[in-house]
């Protein structure tokens, strides 16, 4: 099982990743101005992965990766895989787990811990 994780970039754009249950990122989306765009892309990918194109690539270091596209527009780029076998296993696992994956939203960026000034100021009193 895997999960889509929506987050916010430092420039204010939204993105999502697809990660394994162990937290390893499989692919990262392009930046989106609105969170709803991320949610629409995730829904489209989950409902109709067959309509998307996986373009296999190899970088200068000999590592394999893929780009996920629809109608010529690249929507996501995968992590790098060291061997062709791991690359193929990654795509097979993705196809198996993607339709039933949950979506997690971490885009609000609410920090759950208090500021250090607040914590340490109380100790000095």
From TrEMBL:
It comes from the Bacteria. It comes from Flavobacterium capsici. This is DUF1508 domain-containing protein. InterPro entries: YegP-like_sf.
């Amino acid at each position: 099982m895997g999960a889509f994780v929506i987050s916010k970039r430092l420039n204010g754009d939204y993105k999502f990743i697809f990660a394994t249950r162990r937290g390893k990122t499989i692919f990262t989306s392009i930046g989106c101005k609105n969170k709803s765009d991320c949610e629409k892309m995730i829904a489209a990918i989950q409902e109709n992965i067959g309509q998307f194109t996986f373009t296999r690539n190899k970088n200068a270091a000999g590592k394999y990766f893929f780009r996920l596209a629809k109608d010529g527009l690249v929507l996501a780029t995968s992590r790098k895989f060291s061997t062709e076998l791991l690359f193929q296993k990654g795509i097979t696992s993705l196809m198996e787990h993607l339709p039933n994956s949950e979506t997690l939203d971490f885009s609000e960026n609410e920090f759950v811990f208090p500021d250090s000034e607040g914590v340490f100021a109380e100790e000095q009193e």
